[in-house]
């Protein structure tokens, strides 16, 4: 891990930028294992398990930065958490498991930033995060288990700043977020989630910021999968959710300009699967979302300029959401599958402008299946939603009335 911090009392001129040059290559495999063996606890249990190939953080506070970062991941990254409980997990339990191939976090405050971030994960990679809770005779109050696997991850943050940055991401790794939970009795809420992403970019600019970004994402791995399986004897509230995306870019801004050029290519098979069952339940939900490419560019300030290109290959997108219950009240399943998805918006409470050029091509099958089954004891409400879309684009801008 590399952390670089630049501090200065006032913003410097462009000629006095602080240069940050980072080069990282990880050739071996990275493993992180977390295990909790519990008979009974009163307050709860916590476990955080993280495995990372290459990591860099760079932050400039009132000083300009020029960042060049190159990260290459050759080996596999595997993070696994197992929780074995005999009697009780206590009142509040939180489990987090994360596997990251390359990750870069860059930010500025009251300054300008230029940079090129390049992240590469090779064909030999396997990015896997797995969380499993085993308590088939045990009870719990509230419990959460979040599982995240990302091959390449880049995060940009601006506060009253300006940025001109190019981000290049190329992943050939298989990405998997897997696992689930088995519990006899949950008196509160059990929230089990899995997120798998080939390439991920997030950028947020606030307090009168401006961003001009060029984003390139290519996912050539065979598989991106998020899968979670949960089973309960008796649960008050159960939420099982999965998200699987080949390429994801989310850019938000508060300021005069957001200018984004985004190019996404996905060749991986994308699978999102959330399955849950309960004999007795108060409320239960199984939510699954899967996409080849997804991009969001939103400016709460005046102007949005968006040039978006998305290409999804022939491997396909498959999304499955299933719930099975016997005696309960409310159950809900939602399966949303999309080949390419883009959203762009500009200011809703000022004189906003928007300039958009969008191109989307989906070559593979897209399927969604939502199944909601309640047994002979009956239920109060049963709701299922299943949506499959090849290409989806949403753009909106409003101007306030006189």
What does this molecule look like?
This protein is an all-beta fold. The protein is 0% helix and 80% strand. It contains no helices and 21 strands. It has strands spanning 2-7, 18-26, 30-40, 46-61, 65-73, 77-88, 92-109, 112-121, 126-140, 142-159, 162-171, 174-206, 210-219, 223-253, 257-266, 269-299, 303-312, 317-345, 353-362, 366-374, 381-396. The strands form two sheets. Strands 1, 3, 4, 6, 7, 9, 10, 12, 14, 16, 18, 20 and 21 form a 13-stranded parallel sheet that branches. An eight-stranded parallel sheet has the order 2-5-8-11-13-15-17-19, with no helix packed on it. The model is unreliable at 4-15 (pLDDT under 50).
Give the helices and strands as they follow along the chain: EEEEEEEEEEEEEEEEEEEEE
Task: Determine the N-to-C terminus distance.
Answer: 53 Å
Helix/strand-derived category reads mainly beta
- Envelope shape: globular
What number of domains?
1
Continuous helix count: 0
Beta-strand percentage range: over 45%
**Which percent range fits the helix content?**
under 10%
Radius of gyration (Å) = 22 Å
The low-confidence parts are 4-15
Supply database-style keywords.
mainly beta, 8-stranded parallel β-sheet, 80% strand, globular
Secondary structure: elements and pairs:
Blueprint: E1 2-7, E2 18-26, E3 30-40, E4 46-61, E5 65-73, E6 77-88, E7 92-109, E8 112-121, E9 126-140, E10 142-159, E11 162-171, E12 174-206, E13 210-219, E14 223-253, E15 257-266, E16 269-299, E17 303-312, E18 317-345, E19 353-362, E20 366-374, E21 381-396
Parallel strand pairs: 1-4, 2-5, 3-6, 4-7, 5-8, 6-9, 7-10, 8-11, 9-12, 10-12, 11-13, 12-14, 13-15, 14-16, 15-17, 16-18, 17-19, 18-20, 18-21
């Amino acid at each position: 891990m590399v952390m670089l911090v630049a501090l200065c009392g006032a913003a410097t001129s462009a000629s006095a930028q602080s240069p940050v040059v980072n080069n990282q290559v990880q050739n071996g495999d990275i493993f992180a294992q977390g295990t909790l063996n519990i008979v009974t606890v009163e307050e709860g249990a916590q476990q955080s398990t993280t495995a990372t190939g290459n990591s860099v953080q760079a932050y400039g506070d009132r000083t300009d930065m020029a960042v060049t970062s190159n990260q290459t991941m050759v080996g596999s990254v595997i993070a696994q958490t197992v929780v074995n409980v005999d009697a009780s997990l206590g009142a509040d339990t939180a489990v987090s498991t994360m596997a990251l191939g390359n990750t870069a976090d860059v930010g500025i405050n009251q300054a300008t930033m230029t940079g090129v971030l390049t992240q590469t994960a090779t064909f030999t990679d396997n990015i896997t995060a797995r969380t499993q809770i085993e308590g088939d005779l045990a009870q719990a109050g509230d419990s959460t288990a979040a599982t995240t696997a990302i091959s390449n991850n880049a995060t940009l943050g601006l506060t009253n700043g300006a940025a001109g940055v190019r981000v290049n991401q190329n992943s050939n790794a298989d990405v998997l977020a897997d696992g689930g939970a088995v519990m006899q009795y949950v008196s509160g809420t059990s929230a089990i989630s899995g997120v798998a992403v080939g390439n991920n970019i997030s950028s947020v600019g606030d307090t009168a910021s401006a961003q001009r970004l060029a984003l390139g994402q290519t996912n050539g791995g065979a598989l991106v999968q998020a899968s979670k399986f949960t089973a309960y004897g008796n649960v008050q509230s159960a939420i099982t959710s999965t998200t699987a995306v080949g390429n994801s870019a989310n850019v938000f801004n508060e300021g005069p300009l957001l200018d984004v050029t985004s190019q996404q290519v996905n060749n991986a098979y994308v699978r999102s699967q959330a399955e849950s069952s309960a004999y007795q339940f108060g409320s239960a939900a199984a939510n699954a979302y899967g996409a080849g490419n997804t991009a969001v560019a939103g400016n709460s300030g005046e102007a949005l300029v968006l040039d978006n290109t998305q290409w999804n290959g022939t491997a396909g997108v498959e999304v499955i959401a299933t719930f099975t219950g016997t005696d309960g009240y409310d159950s809900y399943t939602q399966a949303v599958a999309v080949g390419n998805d883009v959203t762009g918006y500009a200011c809703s409470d000022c004189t906003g402008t928007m300039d958009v050029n969008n191109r989307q091509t989906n070559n593979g099958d897209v399927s969604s299946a939502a199944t909601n089954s309640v047994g002979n004891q009956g239920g109060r409400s049963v709701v299922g939603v299943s949506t499959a879309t090849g290409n989806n684009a949403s753009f909106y801008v409003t101007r306030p009335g006189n």
